Structure formats: C-alpha cells, structure tokens
Amino acid sequence: MSALQNPRKPNKSPGKNFYTNPPKKGSGYGYPDVTLSKMVSHSSDPYDRAKEMLKREIMAHKSMLKGGAFRLNLHAVECFNSNPYKFDKPLQPPKKTEEKKHTMVPFKPSSPSKKTGGMRAEHLTPTPPTLQNPVVPKRPNQQSYYTPNNA
Q: Which residues, including other chains, have CB under 8 Å from residue 52's CB and lie 6 or more apart?
C-alpha cells in the first residue's frame, strides 16, 4: 500500500426534481392570501394626533373670546362700616349665677352587696366554717436517695 491516493473523479450530485404543484406556504397565519385572509392596506396614524387636536380646539376657543379677564383699576371704597362686628347698643348686665351649697352627705353605695338570707341568698346552705391551719408541714427527709459508688 502506498501513501498516495488514487486519482478519482469529483462527485457530482444528480440535481433536484422539478415541482409540478408546490406546497402551501405556512398555515395561513402571517401569510396573506393563503386562506381567507386578504392583504391589509397600510394606514398611517400620527403619534401626537390627540395633542394636535387639543391644540386646534384651544386655538379656536381663544379666537372666539372678545377680551381678557375683567379687572378693576380702582381701589375698594368702603360703603359700609369698616368694622362689621361693631355693636352700638349697650350690652345687658351679666347674669349672676347662684352658687350651690355643697352639703356633705355620708357615702351610700348605689347597689348594696349581696347578703345571706332574704331573697339575695348566695347558696342554699351556709358556707362551712374555716379550719385553723389545715395543712400540716412535712418534715424534711434525712435520707438521701442517690449515693455514688466511689464516695
């Protein structure tokens, strides 16, 4: 075997077959005149159209106005008294208020506390008498419960 290659002819492709009926381009979305959709005509829409219309309306309104705002060059003249709160009639003498005498009354509660007997009985039976020192104190236990082995 030698390191040289044998000379060969260049490979030539046979070529494409021709189409008798080319396929449809796309599903219809985005391709005009493929299904029911027709080509949409372009219509321009100015960006500032609303602003321009408002300017035209304002200019038409200002052209219909006759003059500016009504302003007087005269200073205000006092037609009435300078103090509207002035009262010419004399005032009535002030009324004397009678001082109430404060009498000391002993305190009486508005609702008395419930008492035994009568219709305000708290229980059917009276409460038992209290015992004197019912709890007996325990003596501390001298014996320990746990003693370690190495002590």
A: 46
- Judge whether 114 and 120 are in contact, CB under 8 Å: yes
Distance CA 24, CA 128 (A): 108
**Helix spans in 1-151 (H):** 49-64
**Taking the CB of residue 34, how many other CB atoms lie within 10 A of it?**
13
Going from the C-alpha of 73 to that of each of 1, 60, 70, the distances in angstroms are: 122, 30, 10
- What pLDDT digit, counting tens, does each position of 17-33 carry? 877 777 666 666 667 77
Report whether pLDDT(94) > 80.
Answer: yes
Q: Report, as an integer, the average pLDDT of 30-58.
A: 85
